[in-house]
Amino acid sequence: MKEILIIGSEGQLGLEIKKQCKVLNKVNFTFTSLQSLDVTNTQQLVDTIKSKNFDYIVNCTAYTAVDKAEEEVELATKINTSALATIGQSANEIGAKVIHVSTDYVFDGSNHRPYVETDTTNPNSVYGSTKLNGERALLSHNKESMVIRTSWLYSIHGNNFVKTMIRLGNERDELGVIFDQVGTPTYAGDLADIILHIVDADISKVTTFEPGIYHYSNEGVASWYDFTLAIHQKMNISCRVNPIETKDYPTPAPRPHYSVLNKAKIKQVYNVSIPYWKDSLDKCLLLLK
Asked: What is the pTM of this model?
């Protein structure tokens, strides 16, 4: 039996992995939550990782309050950077492979073509900087580590853009939503599926675990405005949605204007097809209904 540790199992991605984990045979899962594991407690994190001979560690936990991170720099650094150094070092000592989820915010959004893994990183927020430093810390401490950068994550769980737009659309007659920030919505269920596929392919020797940096989001491109219209249309919400510019909605942390990710590498290495963002949104909204 293979042993897999899921760190942060109560978040959007962790809950989706927990829901789908039964597809893997001959695997024991250990799930931790914020209550059972404080990743800012280094000794507790080390003890948890070394409590079993884990073959794989999947880190789903992160400090994701993008604007709040501009003030809570120390906490964001502990969760997004320091914990990754600990995970990498401890995993290396027990011979475990690590899959860690990162973000499109490691880029500054100045590109005009989808970002590939080798493009120059240049985060323009505390959140993006701490996530990039976490990537580097993990990869430097454990050569058997995989970083998967994703974007605009949503699910039926927790707080996210989809749920917020449904709530505001039902509460208000009119909304202003940014149209000059472009990326790709990513359904957490699809990301969970690819992570479990990577682990399963390695266990079954179909595809060897290939460390390094990968990009994964759903297919296609949208602005936040497009995303909102698709949500409201599917949910039969009649709220008027007006396109606004980023300058009309200032935030403490700058957002990338363009964060579309090129997924060619992960598709080629792991021989996977990726769902179109509207199809995955439909799937999520049916569950929310």
From this structure: 0.96
